[in-house]
Amino acid sequence: MRIKEFKIIVLLGIFAFSLILVSGCNNQVNVTIPTTSTTTTTSAPTTTTTTTLTSNPTAEPSSTVKLIFLHHSSGRNWLADADGGLGIALRDSNYFVSDTNYGWGPSSIGDNTDFGNWWTWFRGANYSTIMSAVYAESGQHDEGYTYSRLSTDPGGENEVIMFKSCYPNNDNLAGDPSADPPAIGSNGLKGQNCYSGYHLIENAKGIYNDLLNYFSTRQDKLFIVITAPPVQSGTNAGNARAFAQWLVDDWLDGYSYDNVAVFDFYNVLTSKTGSGSNDLGLSTGNHHRWWSGSLQYKTNDGANTSAYPTSGGDDHPNQAGNLKATGEFVSVLNYYYNRWKGLTP
Q: What is the CATH number of the domain that holds 134?
């Protein structure tokens, strides 16, 4: 190393040492070490689904909904344009309606619509074949009791399944309404009609309890139980009332989903207050309807027997009764549909 370069290095060293001494006069040496901090945040992609709640809980569906009604003669009359007009009312509320009747379906299962028979439809050995046919059905089986419907089938499966037993089920409903329903394995009403000795209210409850096992697997469908209509005889009328109220008030207490609901056709047909042909729209009488902004189930202003029998001792509901039921049912159906779809607050 040359002498000139050595002198320069020495002088720089002396200068640096002097700076340290000056800092030491304050008894503090501050050393700042610049650092670079990098934070990387990785967020998983998110999908936000927005459901627009309807301001009207009973609003009709915004797009056409396919509905099928499993019934016999009382349901046929209720649908008919010349009687209950339910077909027209459902059409005008954007439902495409089909139905089943006597003789319909695999093994003519349509012949069998009593309380015990529903177990065969939904839980029996051939339930898959039967229900596939129900979901695919798009025809009308009105036996000449014509009902109107939308002219265009929107395609796809039936989304709403309504099912109703006929009035003999209430006429013959014996048993003890306070008795516990039996386990399904020992329930003699499975697959039986309403003339069976097993047609007891406790067995009927057990059948409907077991149906929920199927309904819970098909949350893509809305199942609507229509209670059987009342009769004129008072023999088993108390049991008929007890079973209908059990379906509305208690049956679904432990059920976690919104894809099952009940319309009490029976209750609606047990009062005729006022001076008109029926008490549709009145504050008096028995009702199952949307009333003053909420669902009303009123059972204390009528009898347990039919207020609307057909003349001549026929227990089929007459036109006035069917029109009352139509006037109350459709808004209730819309409410159940909107609730199931998550459109109600």
A: 3.40.50
